[in-house]
User: What shape does this take?
Amino acid sequence: MLPLTNVPQGTTQTIKWAFGLPEIMEKLEELKIRQGSKILVIQKDKDYMIIGNNGRRIVIENKIAQRIQV
Assistant: This one.
């Protein structure tokens, strides 16, 4: 298992688990980013990454992405 920030750009990953503050976890759930979800790592930057999920592109801060394990 790796944090989402450590996977290569352009790969599709399955989320194993995630943790964080309740309000952040609620937002991830609203975006359908949860255990078992498949996400595409579209772009990585030093402060954020862009991921794809269910036909949407989502910008996520690396501090949050580090708490998502794939």
Remarks:
- The first strand starts at residue 12 and ends at 14.
- The helical segments are 22-30, 62-65.
- The chain has a mean pLDDT of 95.
